[in-house]
Amino acid sequence: MNTPSPEKPRHKGPSKRTLNILTALVGVGTLAAGIAWLVYSWVTDLEVPYFAIPLVMCVPVIAAVAFRNCWD
Predict the structure, then answer these.
(1) Is residue 20 in a domain?
(2) DSSP character for 68?
(3) What pLDDT is recorded for position 26?
(4) Is 39 among the domain residues?
(5) Which terms are listed as keywords in the entry (predicted)?
(6) 61 in a domain, yes or no?
């Protein structure tokens, strides 16, 4: 006879507000790091790596979504 086992209590994650704030901070932090790298490249190499500008704009979104999916 199969008796249902008691369900384990689900591990509670951070609140929605905290998760939204942390996700935004991860995105802004990644964007700041990318912009800092662009400025550093421009100052040291005296040229702007134009190919990297779309990456600097897209990678923060990817990082924020990946961070957010840790709790979903």
Answers:
(1) no
(2) H
(3) 95
(4) yes
(5) Membrane, Transmembrane, Transmembrane helix
(6) yes
- Whether the pTM exceeds 0.70: the reply is yes
Is 60 exceeded by the pLDDT of residue 56?
yes
Cα–Cα distance measured from residue 30 to residue 27, given in angstroms and rounded to the nearest whole number: 5
Q: Which residue type does 71 have?
A: W
3-class SS at 31?
helix
Q: Establish if 21 belongs to a structural domain.
A: no
Q: Tokens 């961070």 identify what position?
A: 67
What backbone torsions phi and psi does residue 33 show, to the nearest 5 degrees?
A: -65, -40
Q: Are the C-beta atoms of residues 70 and 51 closer than 8 Å to each other?
A: no
Question: For residues 56 and 41, what is the distance between their CA atoms, to the nearest angstrom?
Answer: 13
Domain that holds residue 34: 27-68
